Amino acid sequence: MPGDPAAAPAPLPPPPPPSAAAGPAWRLLGTSREQLCLEFTLPTGQSFRWRRTGGGEFTGVVGRRVFQLRQDGGGGGDVAWRVIGRARGEDEARDEEALAEYLNLGVDLAALYAEWAAADARFAKVAPLIPGARMMRQDPVECLFQFICSQNNHISRIHGMVERLCSTYGTPLPLIDAGGGDVAEAAARAEQQQQQQQPAWEVGRKRSLSEVEAAACATAGGPGGGGPLAPEPEGDGGSGSGGDEAPGTPRGAAAAPPPSGDAPPPRRGRKGARAGGAAAERDAPSSSSGSSGGAGGETTAPEPFAAGAAAAAAAAAAAAGAAHFAFPTLDQLSAATEEELRALGFGYRSKFITGAAAALRARPGGGDAWLRALRGATAAEAAAALEELPGVGPKVAACVALFSLDKHDAIPVDTHVWQLATKYYARHLAGKSLTKKLHPEVAAAFVARFGERAGWAHSVLFISNLRQSQALMAGAGD
DNA sequence: CGTGGACCTGGTCTC
DNA sequence: AGTCGCAGGTCCACT
């Protein structure tokens, strides 16, 4: 534990007023921009659970808490945070501890940057443009399934898939100050909104905003003030068409993807699937899967069947940005069927998700514990163990190892990293094609250069490469 | 053992 | 309004 990383000299003024007027008070994390830059940490592909919610603010779920983070644009770049949602049973007093662990705040990132810059001239050149790119420490289960979704896929779509996974199978997280605090109510309200077909949560997604803020983060000079890009004035309230439906009826099945053109249409939505196909065995009420053990304990009944009903409303709520969900547990995930996931748009990854969930649950001691135990294993052992799971190859295994299992020297070798490697750090591999056997070799090259936290260093280079390829670094001098 | 395809889908780049 | 052997891979079938 390298002491307090930040060492911000002056106690910064209270954080700027966030977009949302009301809500819990904001608190400062006590970090500097060099220790933690949200722009280079949250939306760079480590996790797909963070969204921009306007004006430089990020909203995301950590464990069973909904956090909002924002970076002080002017001064030292301290990060303001607050919790706007929390599962019952989670202690408010441990909010900050949970966030600090998730953000790996015990690691002195500025010191590492200095080491890496000394070891590599190329790093020294690009790093100043990308300060505070920090590795997070995610929950292994959450991380694993996110990256199973990531294969051969667009980042934007991965976000949507992860969102649907959570809203369909995960536990809703009640908002604090949500007026009444009843999730069902919020979900119902959201469902009404959802009928207006308005993807409010897309506000601020991608767009050049990221570029603006990236610049702001890198220069620390001009906060730019890209404007709080106000969402469409839909407002929330609106048409109180008083629930025309019983809360229990998952009319939200409409949220399912539209029928594809040619392929054998997988019915639609969870409900359609049941009603359409096996009318005979429909509703054979959870007889088999009902007793999934007392794990859940939530009042929302994580049972498969109930999940369907709750899921629709939940998905609607999520679509309207009105609710947040914990990432589904393995038990909750086990309620998913391949057919259902396909209807939710997971494509051929559906069988990987159900397969991996089943394989994990079959592990002695439970999949969650099995995964966590890999934190004590070597990088090679962890990778080998992860690759036993369906849908997990070397790249996904490395992502999970680096982003959730403390394997700080793991290098996820994708097409971008392969380019970096053959160009700068493992030139002898140039011309070859990336085979499974070459992954360790590429990783070794990065470790040889950057040391035991090569995975962290790789992230900086990766981001730099992305930015460059997107011509976002234009004018940054070259 | 290394290589070539197939694989769901939809955002992005072009007619 | 269409298109892409695409897109931060993996699995499977062959040579």
Characterization of the model:
It is a single chain. By secondary structure, this protein is an alpha+beta fold. Among the domains are: 24-106, TATA-Binding Protein (2-Layer Sandwich), CATH 3.30.310.40; 108-126 and 408-471, Endonuclease Iii, domain 2; 138-180 and 322-405, Orthogonal Bundle (Endonuclease III, domain 1), CATH 1.10.340. The protein has 18 helices and seven strands. The chain has helices spanning 95-102, 109-119, 121-126, 140-150, 155-169, 183-194, 209-219, 269-276, 304-319, 330-333, 338-343, 350-361, 367-373, 379-386, 394-404, 415-425, 438-450, 454-469; strands at 27-28, 50-52, 57-62, 65-71, 79-86, 172-173, 324-325. Helix 4 (140-150) runs antiparallel to helix 15 (394-404). The radius of gyration is 23 Å and the shape is globular. The model is unreliable at 1-15, 178-215, 219-310 and 471-478 (pLDDT under 50). It binds a DNA duplex (15 and 15 nucleotides) through helix 5, helix 15 and helix 16.
Topology readout:
Layout: E1 27-28, E2 50-52, E3 57-62, E4 65-71, E5 79-86, H1 95-102, H2 109-119, H3 121-126, H4 140-150, H5 155-169, E6 172-173, H6 183-194, H7 209-219, H8 269-276, H9 304-319, E7 324-325, H10 330-333, H11 338-343, H12 350-361, H13 367-373, H14 379-386, H15 394-404, H16 415-425, H17 438-450, H18 454-469
Antiparallel strand pairs: 1-5, 2-3, 3-4, 4-5, 6-7
The structure holds a DNA duplex (15 and 15 nucleotides).
